[in-house]
Amino acid sequence: MNYAEILQSKFRDYSAKQAIIFEEEILTYDELNTAVNRVSEFLKRKGIKKGDRVAIQLSKCLEIIYFHLACLASGAIALHLNDTYTSAEAEYFIRDSGSSLFVTDSENYLKSEEMLHGVPELKIVTLNEKFPGALFYPEEMGEIKSCPEPSYPGRNGDTAMILYTSGTTGKSKGAMISHRSLIENMADLHEIWELSDHDISLHTLPLVHGHGLVLAIMGALYAGMTTMMHRKFDPKQVWDTIEKKHCTLFMGVPTMYQRMLNVWEQLPQKPDISSMRLFTCGSAPLSGDLFDRFSNTIGHTILERYGLTETLVIASNPYKGGVRKAKSVGYPLSHVSVRIVGQDGIDVIPGEVGEFWVKSSGVFNGYWRDPEGTEESFCGEWFKTGDLGYQDPRDNLRLYLVGRSKEMIISGGYNVYPKEVENRLEQHKAVKEAAIVALSDPDFGEKVTAAVVFEDHTHAGEAELLDFCKSGLAGYKCPKKIYFVNELPRNAMGKILKDEIKKML
User: Fold this and answer.
1) How far apart, in Å, are the Cα atoms of 315 and each of 2, 191, 318, 358, 450?
2) CA 428/CA 262 separation, integer angstroms
3) How far apart, in whole angstroms, are the C-alpha atoms of residue 224 and residue 97?
4) What's the confidence (pLDDT) of residue 408?
């Protein structure tokens, strides 16, 4: 099956129902279906065919959803770029993916104009302003008076989207997510979280990663629910919207819950959130303190789940019929098998810490154009997650995460790869070497922190280095704090000892 084709049947079933309310704009399921079919026809007219890549870099808007579903319906492969990416960052993803079409808005176009026109055979379409050498979305849509239903050439095992992740080398890798993976994940979550057309979901996540786009939006459409979608996250607005619109479901990251709790505690009159039935948390570990404080203060126990870019959701705490526990990610989904493996590749005894290995028909198709990276990530059918944890032998092998064998930092729900930030800092003429570590932070969960050693007889201030980072990296990747040290601690083999750096800082 094709995931967009499954959703299209939902659109027919709920045609007159409100699908998405984006700020003041109301979109019914029938109107969503029409918009997706029109964009699918646009892609067809521009020569986009099965397997072609379409890169999308837009600030949060409904067109992200139209293009995403149209790509799936057309058999094309969608990849979403954070709208805070610099031109250099966007160029890497466009060139690495070999994208045929780039969908963007005026702000993102202007910061990357020269680069975009230097990419061979790349068609560019802009949404809100017309530019020479680029297609203009309103004009293109105006030429489409009628269109047939898409043919849905992409099937189960075909790649539906590329979600970029990375390793400690700093080179981003594109995880190829299949239609099957999307379908199985949505079906599992629909069942275990009891998602239904009676739900009203509140959406404040970005639409550039698996959490905000796949789980929160595609999951809502799969269930036939109505989604209240805000352009940005505002904790006060969240509580107001839940009360006024009688929302039942909210998906967030720990940073969001921390800020929502802070606002709640300051409100003189607490809002009526009796309509709410489920708060879920993912993308970063939820601290035990925040888990307990939210439950004791708000009266709702957050349901934490665990997933990866390459696998989507792997495990979840129970919605019903079980207890949600702090620092636990619950139990594997029905189609997922999990092993906890030691460094020797042998399963550890339940209760002992090892690396999570995962097997599922929904695991990604491999890394885009990276067979070596794909091979390194698997042992037979088992995907090696790089995450460390254990199973509780006294609680039906409930899963707990304790850390990551890879160096990835999760700050505010976003993945940050230290090597990429280190590389940027070391491009500054005053910096001899840099090391990036994660320090605990009550707001972001993990705070990107730098230790910098200067070249002899040179110096630069913290503000200068932060500005230098921001000129080449998305803001969320940049250090929140830079410390200056005489040297970085190393072992006998010359490897930087990041645990020692954390202790120093």
Assistant:
1) 24, 13, 10, 10, 33
2) 38
3) 33
4) 80
Report the C-alpha gap between 163 and 312 in whole angstroms: 10
Of 109-118, 339-348, 398-407, the least confident: 398-407
- Per-chain mean pLDDT for the chain: 94
Neighbours of 328 (CB within 10 A): 22
Please report how the helices 3-13 and 29-45 are oriented relative to each other, as an axis angle in degrees rounded to 10: 140
Which tens digit of pLDDT belongs to each residue from 239-271?
A: 999 999 999 999 999 999 999 999 999 999 999
pLDDT in tens, 134-174: 999 999 999 998 888 899 999 999 999 999 985 444 578 99
**Residue 55 amino acid letter:** A
Tell me, rounded to whole angstroms, the distance of Cα 262 from its chain centroid. 24
pLDDT, average across residues 363-375: 96
C-alpha R_g of the chain: 23
* Structural domains present in the chain: 3-12+25-155 (3.40.50.980), 182-404 (3.40.50.12780), 409-504 (3.30.300.30)
Nearest to 484 by CA among 464, 471, 416: 464
Residue 269: exposure state from Cβ atoms within 10 A (0-12, 13-18, ≥19): exposed
| Encoded amino acid at 418, one letter | P
> pLDDT tens, 85-124?
999 999 999 999 999 999 999 999 999 999 999 999 999 9
Query: Residues with Cβ < 8 Å from 446, sequence gap 6 or more?
Result: 284, 409, 410, 411, 438, 439, 440
Residue recorded with tokens 């027919």: 12
Q: What angle do helix axes 288-298 and 254-266 make, rounded to 10 degrees?
A: 40
